[in-house]
Amino acid sequence: MTRYSWCMTWQTLLATAIAALAGSTGIAAAPKTVVFAACPIYRDTDNGRKSGCWLGDDPASGLRFDVSDASARPWIGRLMLVEGVEAGTADVCGGRVLSPVRVSILEERCPERLIPPEGHPSKASLLPEDFIKPLYFPPRKKAEPPFAQRSFEVLFDLGSAFINYQDSDTVTERAAHYAQDSDARAVHVQGFADSAGFDLQGVHYAESARLGQIRAEKVAKILIGYGVAAQRIDQRAQPLAPSATPLRLTGLRRVVITVVP
Amino acid sequence: MKPVRLRLARIVLIAALAAAGAVGAQTAPRIDVKPAGPNWWPEGRPFDPSRSYSFPNQQGQLRLLSDAALEPTAQLFFSAIGANGRACVTCHQPADAMSLSVKTIQDRWRATQGADPLFDVSDGANCPDLPRDRESSHSLLLARGLFRIARAWPGVDIEGKPYQPEFTIEVLRDPTGCNSSAAYGLSGKTPQISVFRRPRPAANLRFIEAVGFPYDPKTGMPLARDPQSKGYVSEALLADSRALTLAHQAAEALKSHMGFMPEAPVELLGALLSLERSLHTAQSHDRWGRSLSEDGAKGGPEFLAQQPAGRLQSTKAPIWSEFFAWKNSEDADPEVRAFRRSVARGAALFAERMFLVKDSAGVNDTIFGNPVRNSCAMCHNMLNVGIDVAPGRVDIGNVNPDFSRVDPDLPLFRIRCDKGAQPHAFLGRDFLTQDPGYALTTGKCADVGKIVTQQLRGLAARAPYFANGSAKTLRELVDVYDRRYDIRFSEQEKTDLTNLLSVL
After folding, report:
1. Min Cα separation B310/chain A (Å)
2. Which of A141, A178, B105, B122 is the most buried (most CB within 10 A)?
3. Cβ-Cβ contacts under 8 Å, A165 against chain B
4. Given the DSSP bridges, would you call strands A113-115 and A78-86 parallel, antiparallel or unpaired?
């Protein structure tokens, strides 16, 4: 325990010194991606609904990160896998802000950690710019020709085929609207899973190759639910593909919807 | 529809209309329900949609009105068209906000000693094989207002498709005897599970059917669609989301609660639905606060009937703003003034008083995280009625031990989830429940114990509360949430919330 605390202090100091050096020399440090598994910490800040802070300590660096921007929030008492990019924005929760950031809930149990605000203000929960509009809003403006082939990328948490609210849900809706507006001849739905996996903190994390197919089926079902004709949709599974997002590992867990007008 | 069935439907309609004396009901003399008189609406009493009806209750007065010119066939809602002598109105009483209070049930028992069709053993007894004339046979109905809901196991999903269940059900305790019964139990020839639930109000259904968003954030899927209209459905009609549409619900109710023919004719369903969709009900007067639509407040069914349905509350448009004007009530009567100010505080608390929602499947196992800071309005978020726009299928902790105490009056089941299934987020793969709830419609282990939120209108007229009738009073209801989420409401906050709920 003592050694861990020493490491954390040493590494925190080093990271702070590097950050200070970069700032003083005017060198813009490249955004740093971090990946770690940790027990989540809920800081009970109150800045209105959904305003609590979610934190996690990276065991490698000893740094505490703020993962509150994740589309799916952690569960205290359950290990979380974090992949995020250091945003360099103001610390309002007591951790370095990761954004974009993806959190996956893992099966392993953890001690529940709920801590007081300790003066941290958190931030109010704001509606993202892109969200699924209620049906009572004025009708959306339909896309107009010419229509070109377009692809839409739906990202997933590790081991999951769930479409996250105010995140992947808007992507599937956009794809469905584009398929309908363009009267698409074909809609290809390709599902990917990270079947090769990766090692982290002495644990190998990998997904079943079949999860790619399950994700594709789920997305196809959603497109049909939105009114895309089932006979125009085809599904394919791919075991692995290069990542196209800033979050490399998250990008391996995706569905690509290709709308062919 | 085949010609034979059409003829049958017409015969049924005509016979029922004649029995109800409903033809020409528009011109029938008005029947005033006296405030001091009995509130019971007997089968066959015609309903006049051109007027409103007021009914006294312990808290004040409830009002019911219809906002549509109805065809005479709509009277069939009030006609004893069931093979067991019941009408829809038997269990959806106007004085009880189109639900049925336990007080009304007890009054009917005392008046009829079980002869009333309400006590039909098919669902009005703890099990159909019990003697009808014994009070003990109806203990759950008489003590808690609970009707038996029998669901085939395994069952079908909301679209009527059979599912492959992810869990097994073992009966651990069976105080009603029905789940162990050879004829009605889980081991019978046609296995079924009996759970016991309160009837939901058959009014303000315009709101309950309303679809706010095409997508459900809790399931991560678009809502189901009505195969007839092709439109989205709210999935919020019943406690376990088993009814896709109101027509589906009515057809099932005719069959399971009224012993009606195997398939209800569309004309009959249309008549019932037109009546149900036209009804708005709400508390209109309070014994302390007097009229709920004066001094700037907008209580009562008249305002409700004019509001658009399916709107999500927000900080800009908070729920229960109907009563915000009472915040500074200056009524000359100090008791009236105090009560109105308390209601206004309760209305504000409902959306503003934050607490940690924790370990509730349906909320915390979705993207919101566990815990999540929010208010009552997180789930009770539809303006004017307080049902969840989403829809909300949540285990608030009153059917699954250890979050709830084991209720000795209700059956207790052991759930064992398959190895490959997604486990219940907070209870794992081997746990207990007193009502699997939504899982009876999905077959999913993760859904065990989730119950669809319900509207909060007319509460004062329809105690007890929660789907299993476990809160006898509105104050108890507030206390349940206070304990469950360790909210630590002050006494004043509890009083204010209770007062708010009593005037809805």
Report:
1. 8
2. B105
3. 217, 220, 366-367
4. unpaired
Contact check, Cβ <8 Å, A226/B222: yes
Asked if B308's CB is within 8 angstroms of A225's CB, the reply is no
Test mutation, A120, A163, A217, A221, chain B, max B CBs within 10 A: A163
Q: In the CATH scheme, what is the code of domain A31-115?
A: 2.40.50
Domain parsing of chain A, residue ranges: 31-115, 150-260
Q: Are A37 and A52 in contact (CB under 8 A)?
A: no
Cα distances (Å, whole numbers) of residue B2 to A191, B9, B255: 46, 11, 20
> How far is the CA of B394 from the CAs of A111, A130, B162, B369, B447, in angstroms?
25, 26, 23, 14, 9
pLDDT digits 0-9 by tens, B289-306: 999 999 999 999 999 999
Nearest-CA residue of chain A relative to B217?
A165
Q: Residue B251 burial by CB count (10 A; 0-12/13-18/19+): exposed, middle or buried?
A: buried
Q: Which of A76, A132, A166 is closest, CB to CB, to B214?
A: A132
Per-residue pLDDT of chain A in tens (261 residues, 90 and over written 9): 233 333 333 444 444 444 444 444 445 566 799 999 999 999 999 888 898 999 999 999 999 999 999 999 999 999 999 999 999 999 999 999 999 999 999 999 999 999 999 999 888 888 888 888 999 999 999 999 999 999 999 999 999 999 998 889 999 999 999 999 999 999 999 999 999 999 999 999 999 989 999 999 999 999 999 999 999 999 876 555 566 688 989 999 999 999 999
- Looking at domain A150-260, its CATH superfamily turns out to be OmpA-like domain (3.30.1330.60)
